[in-house]
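Agenda item 2: NAP complex prediction
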Amino acid sequence: MKALICKSLGLPDTLSCEDVPDPVPGPGQVVVDMKAAGVNFPDALVIQGKYQFKPPLPFAPGAELAGIVSAVGEGVRNAKVGDRVIGSCQYGAFAEKVVVRASHLIPLPKGISFEVGASFTLAYGTSYHALKGRAGLKAGETLLVLGAAGGVGLAAVQIGKALGARVIAAASTPGKLAVCRENGADELIDYATEDLRERIKALTGGKGPDVIYDPVGGRYAEPAFRSIAWGGRYLVVGFADGQIPSLPLNLPLLKGASVVGVFWGEFVSRQLPDFVRDLTEMFALIAQGKLRPYISARYPLAQGAQAIADLLARRVTGKVVITNGDAAEVGQAAAAVPPPPPAATGAAPATPDGPIALADLHRLAGQSIGVSGWFTLDQARIDAFADCTQDHQWIHVDAERAARESPFGGTVAHGFLTLSMIPATCYELLLGRVQAAQAVNYGLDRVRFVAPVLAGKRVRNRVKVLSVEDRGMGRYLLTTENTVEIEGEEKPAVVAVALAMLM
Ligand SMILES: NC(=O)c1ccc[n+]([C@@H]2O[C@H](COP(=O)([O-])OP(=O)(O)OC[C@H]3O[C@@H](n4cnc5c(N)ncnc54)[C@H](OP(=O)(O)O)[C@@H]3O)[C@@H](O)[C@H]2O)c1
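Presented output:
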């Protein structure tokens, strides 16, 4: 396969597109055939050895991608060959084939192209976490975004608008500011030609912005902070300027303001359920047309170095992607953003057949989610269960005696063994369909053992969602009715109402 290889640390012109061996997935990993990979500022830092982590040389940069799973390693349960996925990795995405940890994959939602999927998670994830999670931006507040035409900056402009704020976009050229305007900015500041403090004062009637989003740092930080409103929140996002500014500590005191750090990568690893909640909320905003990821340029893999060079030279707006494959498939020609859903009519919505965001789980209430595959309750499984539970009743484990004395003509499975198959069959029906990071078996509400299962018989589970309760903090309590059917028999083995917490 081809990959964009960094053999010695340096600027993008040290990268070369070369043939390297195809990767093989290890346990818990998959290989994704990359269709598009998002280019981010950290990629430019990693190849220079200036980022928090330093991959061993040689390596391919690139931290996020979308594509199709082409190989699956041992123990992977949430992905199979052919799945369309979004993946994240510390490096390696600028290659035709990319090894990704299965836990770092999410299904590519229907209606979202590879290129949007590849360039969305990091930039929008950072800005959503910053504005909603860290600053608590509220509708009606004023948000100032520095570097507003860049990757995370433009995402912040769109998210600020979606959250109901008045957005002031600051950038360095009229062309960049025009992009900010197209993407929803209410007011514009050209900080290359205008006095930042004076313009902020004029645009806010002297009050100042409630929230400042700063991915640039350098010489803009202090004048911006001096302009912040009383009780304002200053989001420290990055230092694209190259200079880490320092701030006199009397300024936060005088303004009753907070300096708020934003570290999205660490947030994802420490607070995964919160990240999953953010992601599902953002996908919902895309579906409603409130977020429209903006991709300004595509570079084939062989020209990937140019993409990073353009980013460093401040020549790009919004997101740029490295592509692999024909344009229509990657998404240039496809309508990447689905139209907003039709207004509610009062009729029950149809069950969605694509991936379901946790926030949309309630749409499944009252609906069947299908029937699992068959599985056989053979004697080996029954014996293993008896060993585990110390329940060696002859009706379960003594085949000779059961053949002579049992009314069923042989041994039968323990009722609790049949019951215990419910989680596995639910995973089969829900995994890859519901965008949950984790599902915890929360309990059972009612269980009825209806008919015995003769050893060797096949059973399957028919599942209906009874209710979905939002338990807050991105957690949803899912109540399902499970009917475990026995092949060729009318009566089911078990009917149980089970509870699962999805997050
Ligand atoms: N904290 C986190 O968790 C997190 C997550 C993602 C990214 N980041 C950081 O956020 C920053 C922006 O990332 P990005 O992917 O949005 O980058 P980007 O697309 O290149 O945007 C950066 C913007 O910064 C401005 N800028 C000012 N001086 C610059 C310089 N010397 N070189 C390049 N740009 C300069 C540019 O706008 P003008 O030309 O209009 O000034 C540019 O549009 C980076 O520092 C990145 O490391 C932080």
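Discussion summary: The longest helix spans residues 114-134.
Owner for follow-up: CH.
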